[in-house]
Structures are given as structure tokens and as C-alpha cells.
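Re: your question about YwbE family protein

S., sorry for the slow reply, the queue was backed up all week. Below is exactly what I fed in.
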Amino acid sequence: MNGQNRENIKPGLEVDIVLKQDQRTGKTTKGRVKDILTKSAFHPHGIKVRLEDGQVGRVKKICE
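Result:
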């Protein structure tokens, strides 16, 4: 599942995000969602979230 729709993302879900400094390479970071930072229902580059460890990035994939 991709991370473009806000309704698919809930706190506690395990996700792969791309951090701001990794946008060029596309390197992903795995973690659990703490806060959802994007207010809109859809974002083409992925919904922005804060992980439990404090890192912020856009969701590329929701891990099952």
C-alpha cells in the first residue's frame, strides 16, 4: 500500500518513509508512525509523518 492517502495511515503503523535529506537517493527509513503532519487527504509525494524516534519524512510504503 502506498502512502499517498491520509486515511490509510494511522499512529502505530509500521511504514517506510523518505527523509528530506534522502529524497534525491530515494533511501527509505523504517519506523512506526507517531504523528501525521499532512492535513490534506491526499499528497502525490506521500503523507508527511513523524516517527516514534522523532524522524520526519513522507510515507512511501505501508508495511503489512
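Strands lie at 14-19, 29-36, 48-51, 56-62. The domain at 6-62 is CATH 2.30.30 (SH3 type barrels.).

Happy to talk it through on Thursday.
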